[in-house]
Write a structure and sequence with these properties.
heterodimer; A: 311 residues; alpha/beta; 8-stranded mixed β-sheet; 10 helices; globular; B: 459 residues; MetI-like fold; Jelly Rolls; 5-stranded antiparallel β-sheet; 4-stranded antiparallel β-sheet; 9 strands; elongated
Chain lengths: 311, 459
């Protein structure tokens, strides 16, 4: 469905080029839920924005390909992309989607606007009720204003809006970050149901590894704009190979109260990246080669790849 | 959408200042409607022509000043109608004689400033004789030779002076020449005792009989008049040229509102759209648009207006547009700031992801957020517009043949109203400028509180 090759997204800043994404490969198949993990600033949101062509100045796609159903959407004319891809084929739930509604219009009228713009042919009022039902909201919500809803309700209403045109591909960028655990799990269950019922592909961007392990088929771990590790959910979470993934998993607090061991140091400055492996300065298993040469993404097993000199 | 407007309206009406402002505005609008219906279209031409006001008292106080203890005499129009025709033959010649009589009651203790006889007829008359009888039965006959229709004969005219000096001669045996207007008036109105020109005013019924003599028949289509011109006139008095101030106030009201509303609406709408677009576009376009705004902001507005109004004669519409052209940058800067903050909202990014066209995002998601601010600024901009327009009128910068309160004040200043003590000439236009701006200020404050609640009321 989505094939990203060697994607480079740079931001022009006063200090120099910020390499937010530097040659990342990414793939989502039909009906697959793929997770993108990593700490803040690793490029996960940039990847999501690049796929939906929302990178705005001073950011720029400097290289690579984003193929959607075989067509490169980077090369596509903006008008064509807007008319036939945005929301129709690639819908997105934002990090702050609960603020994604204009405060001065009702929920219903905003969903209606999307339906109208994308030329929905059926009865729009029925469709809005159906969509709200899909995300377990009352049809009466349509007449409410955004400020009258709770955060979870807004998030679900936005999900309903994202599903308005039956998109085959949904990007969910931190869809549950600001929500309580119960609402979180209900939204995650909702995504699961959607995949089962409608066969939609979902790209789930989050730093919440527990959430990812729960739902995704495959997971991409990004570090400083580069791919650190990729593999099936089981492989990555059970047998992490890359020291960064290991550190990340060890940083997740557990309910039993085992002590958390984080990763020492900070992510490198994206303007001045170290010459070798980007993770070398923080890596517990660092070797001489790590500091001089960049590792390439290597197949480690059938279901797992990692960019590390250890393998 | 609907409920937001409803709740805003409810809040607005509940706030004291909003409600008071609304009531005042309705009253002012009723006066405007009255003005539009009652004041003739060509009033401005008439207003600026001193000849049109010769029948009116000059510098007369408002009629109600007796209430505050000032002594004034009323102005009484005495209409001469129902002319009775009789024929007189004298030898071979045949004369036509027309008589009309009228009376009025005088109760003021002050002598009026003038009388004026204004005959109106068709044809040629030889002479007119005015038989003036005072309540004390003393009578003066005033002979007007070669009387002409439409001419005005007042206490200053030689015919009146001659008649009065003969009257004085008959009463006292003394001949007096070079009578002044006020001497003529006191001879006509006072109870003449020994000191003929210094007695108290005679009160009661005065009668005026007018006889016109002609060699050919005369036609009377409209009424002739014999007006007693007192020292008070109308609800707001008159000015140096005899123009009633209340008429000027009434004629100036629609102009003030029209200019105030026009300048405010055009400037705010233009400024908000421009500034809103600048904030919406962002980046280089924003830079260029902001630069343009600042250039316009830096234009010296007064110099600009002076040059333009002296080099071309503007219409009311053009003046309004010119002022808005010079004042939109303020609103553009405010709107740009608001737009920038709207732009950073998630829902604007969401709109882009949803494939909502840019123009649609702007009009359906930016403008509704800018609308409340714009409404408050429009309402507050109206009094500012009125004040500016009146100030410019006072400085003489305004379309020709337009009555504004500013021009009334200008002419009061020019004719030294303060020197004559004609306070009504200054007070009423000045007061009206304040009164016309107050409702908008009140409503603007009320709206501002609802739209941008900054001050919390703890009571």
């Amino acid at each position: 469905m989505i094939d990203v090759h060697e994607l480079r997204v740079y931001f022009d800043s006063a200090r120099g080029l910020v390499k937010a994404l530097d040659g990342v490969d990414f793939h989502v198949g039909r009906g697959e839920i793929v997770g993108v993990a990593g700490e803040s600033g690793c490029g996960k949101t940039t990847l999501a924005l690049a796929i939906s062509r929302l990178i705005s100045s001073p950011g720029k796609i400097m290289g690579g390909k984003i193929e959607f159903e075989g067509r490169d959407i980077i090369e596509m004319d903006e008008d064509e992309f807007r008319k036939s891809y945005r929301w129709k084929k690639i819908a997105m739930v934002f990090q702050g989607s609960m603020n994604g509604f204009t405060p001065v219009f009702t929920i219903g009228s905003q969903i209606d606007e999307v339906l109208m713009i994308h030329g929905y042919h059926g009865n729009r009022v029925d469709r809005i009720a159906e969509l709200l039902g899909m995300v377990e909201l009352e049809p009466g919500i349509a007449r409410r204003f955004p400020h009258e809803l709770s955060g979870g309700q807004k998030q679900r209403a936005f999900l309903a809006m994202a599903l308005a045109i039956d998109p085959p591909f949904l990007i969910a960028d931190e869809p549950t970050t600001a929500l309580d655990v119960l609402t979180q799990s209900s939204i995650i269950n909702l995504l699961k149901t959607l995949r089962k019922k409608k066969q939609i592909s979902i790209m789930l961007v989050t730093h919440d590894l527990a959430l990812l392990s729960e739902i995704v088929d495959r997971v991409y771990v990004l570090y400083a704009g580069k791919l650190a590790e990729v593999g099936t959910s089981d492989a990555v979470f059970e047998r992490p190979k890359h020291p960064y993934t290991k550190g990340l998993i060890a940083s997740v607090p557990t309910i039993t109260g085992k002590s958390i061991s984080g990763i020492s140091g900070f992510m490198p400055d994206l303007v001045n990246l170290p010459p070798g492996c980007k993770f070398a300065p923080r890596c517990p298993n660092v070797m001489t080669i790590c500091k001089n040469e960049e590792p390439r993404v290597q197949r480690i097993s059938e279901e797992q790849k990692a960019a590390c000199w250890l393998y | 959408m609907d409920s937001i407007w409803k709740s805003t309206t409810r809040q607005f009406l509940r706030s004291k200042s909003g409600f008071a402002g609304l009531v005042m505005m309705i009253v002012i609008l009723l006066f405007t409607v009255y003005s539009a219906a009652e004041v003739p279209q060509n009033i401005a031409f008439k207003w600026n022509n001193p000849q049109s006001w010769t029948g009116n008292p000059v510098g007369a106080a408002p009629v109600w000043v007796g209430v505050i203890g000032l002594h004034v005499s009323p102005s009484i129009p005495v209409s001469l109608k129902m002319w009775q025709e009789s024929n007189v033959s004298a030898g071979a010649a045949r004369f036509y004689e027309y008589n009309s009589n009228s009376s009025f009651s005088w109760s003021s203790s002050t002598t009026p400033q003038d009388v004026s006889f204004l005959p109106t007829f068709r044809g040629n008359a030889i002479s007119a004789t005015i038989a003036w009888t005072k309540p004390g039965a003393k009578a003066v006959d005033i002979q007007v030779s070669q009387v002409q229709s439409g001419n005005q004969y007042d206490a200053n005219s030689p015919d009146f002076k001659n008649a009065i000096s003969q009257y004085i001669l008959a009463q006292t045996g003394q001949y007096s020449s070079g009578l002044t207007k006020s001497q003529v008036m006191s001879a006509l109105f006072d109870q003449n005792g020994k000191g003929l020109l210094s007695g108290p005013v005679d009160t009661g019924d005065f009668t005026v009989e007018v006889q016109l003599l002609s060699t050919s028949p005369l036609n009377f289509t409209s009424n002739s008049s014999f007006n007693v011109i007192g020292t008070s006139y109308g609800p707001m008095g008159t000015d140096y040229y005899g123009r009633p101030i209340d008429l000027g106030i009434l004629a100036g009201l629609p102009n003030a509102l029209e200019l105030g509303i026009l300048t405010s609406v055009v400037a705010v709408v233009g400024g908000v759209i421009f500034g809103g677009l600048a904030g919406y576009f962002g980046g280089r376009k924003d830079g260029i648009m902001q630069w343009t705004t600042i250039v316009f902001l830096a234009l010296p507005a007064l110099n600009f207006l002076v040059v333009i109004s002296y080099s071309s004669s503007l219409t009311l519409l053009e003046e309004g547009l010119l002022i808005s052209f010079l004042s939109w940058p303020f609103y553009a800067i405010i709107a740009r700031t608001v737009a920038l903050s709207i732009k950073s909202q998630t829902y604007i990014e969401a709109d882009r992801a949803m494939g909502i066209p840019a123009y649609r995002t702007f009009f359906s998601h930016f403008m509704p957020r800018l609308a409340p601010v714009s409404i408050a600024y429009t309402v507050l901009g109206i009094p500012a517009g009125i004040l500016l327009v009146e100030t410019l009128g006072f400085l003489g910068i305004q379309p020709p043949n337009l009555i504004t309160w500013g021009t009334i004040l200008d002419s009061a200043f020019f004719n030294e109203a303060a020197l004559y003590g004609w306070w009504w000439w200054v007070l009423f236009p000045g007061l009206m400028i304040v009164i016309a701006t107050i409702p908008f200020v009140l409503m603007g404050f009320a709206l501002d509180k609802i739209i941008a609640p900054r001050v919390t009321n703890f009571d």
